[in-house]
Description:
The complex is a heterodimer of chains A (288) and B (400). Chain A has helices at 2-26, 35-53, 57-86, 90-116, 139-161, 163-173, 175-180, 185-207, 218-232, 237-257, 263-277, and strands at 129-132, 135-138.
Amino acid sequence: xxxxxxxxxxxxxxxxxxxxxxxxxxxxxxxxxxxxxxxxxxxxxxxxxxxxxxxxxxxxxxxxxxxxxxxxxxxxxxxxxxxxxxxxxxxxxxxxxxxxxxxxxxxxxxxxxxxxxxxxxxxxxxxxxxxxxxxxxxxxxxxxxxxxxxxxxxxxxxxxxxxxxxxxxxxxxxxxxxxxxxxxxxxxxxxxxxxxxxxxxxxxxxxxxxxxxxxxxxxxxxxxxxxxxxxxxxxxxxxxxxxxxxxxxxxxxxxxxxxxxxxxxxxxxxxxxxxxxxxxxxxxxxxx
Amino acid sequence: xxxxxxxxxxxxxxxxxxxxxxxxxxxxxxxxxxxxxxxxxxxxxxxxxxxxxxxxxxxxxxxxxxxxxxxxxxxxxxxxxxxxxxxxxxxxxxxxxxxxxxxxxxxxxxxxxxxxxxxxxxxxxxxxxxxxxxxxxxxxxxxxxxxxxxxxxxxxxxxxxxxxxxxxxxxxxxxxxxxxxxxxxxxxxxxxxxxxxxxxxxxxxxxxxxxxxxxxxxxxxxxxxxxxxxxxxxxxxxxxxxxxxxxxxxxxxxxxxxxxxxxxxxxxxxxxxxxxxxxxxxxxxxxxxxxxxxxxxxxxxxxxxxxxxxxxxxxxxxxxxxxxxxxxxxxxxxxxxxxxxxxxxxxxxxxxxxxxxxxxxxxxxxxxxxxxxxxxxxxxxxxxxxxxxxxxxxxxxxxx
Lengths: 288, 400
C-alpha cells in the first residue's frame, strides 16, 4: 500500500515536471533544454512570495504563471521563431532549437545566480504528516499531487474540448496542413510554448514546497522531464501523465523492494525498454 | 550628429583612462589575493555558506586595520574572485591564471576536497602555500609527502566516520541506546567513502547494521529511504548525506514520525539554514562539525561574520576557513615579506592562535578538530572532537 501511495505521489511530482515540456515539444516542436531552469525560476518565485510576503505558494501561481507565460512568449518570439522560420527541415529545426535552448539554460542559471546567489533554498509549507490508510505522508506532497491532477485535467479538457485546443492539436499533428486550413501556426506555436513555460513554472512553484533547490539544480529536472516526455510519446499529454506515473511507481517499487540506490537504473531500464519496443513512445504516433 | 557623438566618446574615453590610471596609481602598493571556488554548479550551495563569506570578511578586516604589515610598510589587500563552476578543470585553469596573468601575491586554497587535491600541483609548481580548510581525506600522509606547501586542517575521512560511532558506542555502553543501526548514504564520492569506512567500524564496534542503502544524488523523493530505515526498527539513524538530501531526509523523518534516539545527517546539518528551516525540531539532531560555544574568539567571529556578511557562518568548516586565513596572515606578517618558501616554513614550524583555538601542524596536518556536533537549544555545538576542548554533553534526541 505504501508503495502505491508513495509511487503515485512521486508520479504526480514527475507529471508537474514534464507537462510543460510536452506542450512545448509536442506543439511548438521545441525540445526545450531550459525547461528545468524555468521550473527553478517558478520555485524562486514561490519562495520569494512565501518568505517576503507570506503568500502561499499556491496563491503565488496567480502571478507566477502569467509572468512565466509572458517571458516564454517573448523567448519564443525573439529567440526561437527566427530559428523556426529559417529551418529547412525538421532535423535542422530540432538541432537549432536544442542548441538555442541549451544556451538559454546557461543564461537562466546565470541570471538566477546573480539575483539569488548560490545558496540552497527551502521553506516549510504544509510539512505536516497526513494519514492515509494508517500511514503518514507529507501534506505538501499530497497537495502537490492534487495540483498535478487538477493541472493535467485542465490541460486535457482545454486541448480536447476547446477550439483553441483543437488548433494546437492540429499544429502538433501537421503544421503544414494546419496552416492550409487557416490556423495561424506561428501564433499557435508561440502560445503553446508560452503555456508550456507557465505550466512548468507552476510545477516549480508547487515542488518548492518540499524540495531543496538552488540556482543551478535545473538540469536534474530537465533530464527527468526529457525521459518522461519521450517515454510518453510526443504530442499527447495522456502519454506524459502515464509515463510520469509509471516512472513514479517503478522507482518507488524498486526503492522499497530492491534498493533505493537502483532507482536511477530502473528509470533508464524502463526508458530503454519502451524505446526498443515502442520507439514512438507510449501514446506517440508512428512517424508518417 | 555623428561628429557630436564621437566628441562625446572621446571625452568619455579620456575620463575612463584618467580614472583607470588613478586607480592603478593607488593599487601600486596593494597585495593581490587570488581566490577560485564555485559560484555556480553543484557545490555552490556549500561554497556560498562556508567559503566565500570568510574570504570577504577577512579581506575587509585586514584592510580595515590598514592592511598586512610587512617590513616595508602596510599593504592593503585586493581580492580577485574567480568561479570554478564546480569543475576541476576550470579550477586548475583559474589557479594557473591567477598566478601567471593576475600575478597574485597570495593564492587561497579552493573549496572542497576534490578541488584542493586537483589544484595541489599548481600551488606546488609555483611554490604557494596551500592551507586547506574544506578538504577531508585519508590520503593526507601521501599528499603532504609529495607537496611540501600543502596543509590540512579539517581532518580525515576515518576520523569523521569514527566520530558518530564513538558517540554510539558511548551511548550503548551507558545503556541509552540499543545495538541496531540504520545507515544510508548518498551515492557520491563523499557518501560512498564514508559508508565504506563506517560499515567496517560499526561491525568492529559490535553494532548490527539493520538497514544499509544508498540513494542517487538528486533523489527527489526520500520517503522510501526513510520508510525502509523505519521498518528495520533501528535504535540509531546514520546518514552520510549532502545538503539537499540532509534537508529531505530530516523533513521526511519528521513526517513519517520516525523517532530514534540517535539521528545523524552529515553535511549541511551545521548550516544556519538547517536551524532556520526546522527550528525547534532540530533539538538533538547530530551532524558533522560543531563549535565550542564557550570559545570567546569563536563568538566574536560569529558576530563579525553576521555583521559584515549579513549571514551567520556554519558551525563546522566556516570557522576553519577563517582560521586558515588567520594562519596565513600571521605567517606573512611574521616573515615580513611575500617570500613563499619562508612563509611555508613558518607555517610548518609555529603555532597559531585562531578562532577555532590554537593550531599547530604536525607533518603539515592539524590533528585537532571537531567531528560531531549537535543542535542544542538552537545552537549547533561540538559534542565529539579530536583533541579540542569544550565538548558539550550529548542530549537525547527529542521526538518529532
